[in-house]
Amino acid sequence: MNIDIVINQIRLRCPLFGNRVAGAAEFKGVDQNNALAAPCAYVIPLAEVAEDNRSQNDIIQEVRESFAVIVCVGMGDERGQASHNIVHDIRALLFSALLGFEVDEDCPIDYEGAALLALNRGRMWYQYEFGTTYQVDVLGTWQHYKISNLPPLEIVHMNTDVIDPIADPNLQAPGPDGRSEFQSKIQLEQE
């Protein structure tokens, strides 16, 4: 997921932050002492989890991609009560900006949960988690490249081993005998 798109959406729909919305690879990468002025937000990728392939001869996988919006607010009191009220209001703004928003076509964002990350005398850091599910299919895969670069199918050769229609069904092996009774060759027209 391109987190720049998410950052721009938050900047556009959450004026409380002004331009104080940035990205980071992880929360540890945000120096709490040198962070943007509060209130601010950081968008970080969390995880990408793929289900098993659902096809035996193709690629069809659902992938869940999650990201966090970590908000930082100033402390109104040492207990954090006032700050918690602010992050509660920020959640409503984030919902308005992100829920249902599609970073990629047909992949709407939904809410996964939230948690307090850190608290000190000056700031409260709160993490809201969001995600989206998309499908990986054969397009854009090695399999697609390999199949699309095969030469055109021009001729089909068929050998048919016929089962004797009057064979005794009580016999253990009334099936094919290994001799090809019928052979054909089909020339396919090319467009």
Describe the protein's architecture and organization.
- By secondary structure, the protein is α+β, with helices and mostly antiparallel strands.
- The protein is built from 3 helices and 9 strands.
- It folds into 2 domains: 136 residues, STM4215-like, CATH 3.30.2000.10; 45 residues, no CATH class.
- It is 19% helix and 37% strand.
- It is elongated, with a radius of gyration of 30 Å.
CATH class of the largest domain: Alpha Beta
Largest sheet: 5 strands, mixed
Proportion in β-strands = 35-45%
The CATH superfamily of the largest domain is known as Phage tail protein-like
Number of self-contained structural domains? 2
User: How far apart are the termini?
Assistant: 40 Å
Alpha-beta classification: alpha+beta
**Strand element count:** 9
Q: What is the name of the CATH architecture of the largest domain?
A: 2-Layer Sandwich
CATH topology of the largest domain: STM4215-like
Q: Which stretches are low in confidence, meaning pLDDT under 50 for 5 or more residues running?
A: none
Q: Output mean pLDDT.
A: 84
What is the overall number of helices?
Answer: 3
Radius of gyration over all CA atoms, rounded: 30 Å
Q: In sequence order, what are the helices and strands, one letter per element?
A: HEEEHEEEEHEE
- Helix content range of the residues, please? 10-25%
Strand line-up across the major sheet: 1-2-3-7-6
